[in-house]
Design a protein that fits this description.
By secondary structure, the chain is an alpha/beta fold. The protein has one domain (9-202): UDP N-Acetylglucosamine Acyltransferase, domain 1 (3 Solenoid), CATH 2.160.10.10. The protein has 4 helices and 22 strands. The chain has helices at 9-14, 24-42, 48-58, 123-126, and strands at 19-20, 61-62, 66-68, 72-74, 80-82, 86-88, 92-94, 100-102, 107-108, 113-115, 117-118, 129-130, 136-137, 139-142, 145-147, 151-153, 158-160, 164-165, 169-171, 176-177, 185-188, 193-197. Strands 3-6-9-16-19-21-22 form a 7-stranded mixed beta sheet, with no helix packed on it. Helix 2 (24-42) packs antiparallel against helix 3.
């Protein structure tokens, strides 16, 4: 082996390398997340204390106040990080095979999807495979997502893996974010592009 250190499939996943989705540790942690989310989404509508407890265990880190309208969907435990004063509306989906880091004062509309998982472009590399024991699996990789402070993401937005959204940004409803978005702008469309800067003229409180 010449001193070579073999990586686990989880280490490959977190490192942005192709990994085996059927690996026992990967499956165990994915199922752990699914159980927690099942409990979160099934909690009584007024049992916020229980939901907060589940999310605190679920998130990789959090600061101050945060609230997520159920249902929510995550892929893994402790791979999404949120800052202070975070709010997401119904049906937030975070496939956090790579770290997702969200800053302070972020508002997310309904039906938003944050999607770090990636599949190879070459079909023969992404197609389902079968192990000798009959287990079906595929090879995937993932790219992290970073969202800055003071961001409003409109409803039905899709944020792809590898994207960084700057601070003081508004992402228009229905946008598909495939590339980085700089600070201080309104960005819209598919693919999402900068529409214009946010200026003092946009103030509603004078």
């Amino acid at each position: 082996m010449n001193g070579e250190i073999k990586m686990t499939e989880m280490e490959k996943m977190l490192g942005g390398l192709l990994y085996d989705t059927s690996d026992a540790e990967v499956v165990r942690l994915r199922n752990r997340a699914r159980r927690a989310i099942f409990e979160y989404n099934g909690a009584a509508w007024n049992d916020q204390e229980r939901r907060d407890s589940i999310l605190r265990e679920m998130l990789g880190g959090h600061e101050g106040l945060f609230f997520m309208e159920p249902p929510v969907h995550f892929d893994f435990f402790r791979n999404t990080f949120v800052g202070r004063n975070f709010y997401s509306n119904y049906n937030l989906t975070v496939l956090d095979c790579a770290p997702v880091r969200i800053g302070d004062d972020v508002l997310i509309g309904p039906n938003v999807a944050i999607l770090p998982p990636m599949h190879p472009l070459v079909a023969q590399e992404r197609n389902i495979r079968t192990k000798p024991d009959g287990t079906a699996y595929d090879l995937e990789y993932a790219k992290p997502v970073t969202i800055g402070n003071n961001v409003w993401i409109g409803g039905n937005v899709v944020i792809n893996g590898g994207v960084t959204i700057g601070s003081d940004v508004v992402i228009g409803s229905g946008s598909v974010v495939t590339r980085d978005i700089p600070d201080g702008v309104v960005a819209v469309g598919n693919p999402c592009r900068v529409l214009r800067p946010i200026t003092p003229e946009d103030r509603m409180m004078r």
